[in-house]
Amino acid sequence: MRTLITTVVVAAMMGGAAVASAGPEGKLSVTSANLTNGENIYKNGKGSVPACQSCHGADGMGDDNLGTPRLAGQIFQFVLKQLEDFAADRRKDMTMFVMNDNAKGLTEQDRVDVAAYVSQLKGEWTPSNLEEIAKTGMPVGKTWLGKEIVLYGLPEKGVPACRACHNYNGRGVDPLFPAIGEQRYVYLVNQLKQWRDGTRANDPEVGGKGAMREVAKNMSDEDIYNVAAYLTKASPYPPGDRRIPSRHVPIAFVR
Known about the structure:
This protein is mostly helical. It has 2 domains: 7-119, Cytochrome Bc1 Complex, Chain D, domain 2; 130-232, Cytochrome Bc1 Complex, Chain D, domain 2, CATH 1.10.760. The protein has 11 helices and 5 strands. The strands form 2 sheets. Strands 1-2-3 form a 3-stranded antiparallel β-sheet, with helices on one face. A two-stranded antiparallel ribbon has the order 4-5. A hairpin with a 5-residue loop joins strand 2 and strand 3. The chain is globular and about 50 Å long. The two termini are 34 Å apart. The model is unreliable at 1-18 and 20-30 (pLDDT under 50).
């Protein structure tokens, strides 16, 4: 299986951002991200591919009613990997059942452009409304119990702290570990359950085993609800520190 983790080349060339992505034979090829094209696809779609905003929102903040995730501000390399995985059927869309076809309908360059566009989207985050979600009949966890798992894990179950890979409050570590803090509650619950039952299996391997599948298999439904409840409200800023780690995102784009 070819390596899909992508890295950003730390250099901007001719007004564009040089990004490296794994080619068909696993070799890195350099291309540039076109924000204008990414924005156009996100807002208007392309051919048979509908506008991304129709499910993820104009601001990229996702929708609990649809079960779609926040994309705005997500790590570029991670978004690109997911689009590549959907296109190659390494990940199955178990929510809206459209992402595999959508990703296939985009060229490799289109996927780079869309990933770059959403990675720089910014907006005011509004956590998932847990009270409204509870009214739909979906169980809602307890944030204080979720905080314990996110920060300290469940040693008695062999569940490591989420922050061990995803950093403080799940704010993400580029290029491998996505931001899971300030993410949609319904999406987090669904993905953790899919990791647990193996219907999602495109996680990085550690010691020959899927990292997220190894974590989630030891989590109960209650654990999952608690973690998701905490993460959707989790600020990426530690107390007294308004800084977040810099990311190797494209520093300039072709307009």
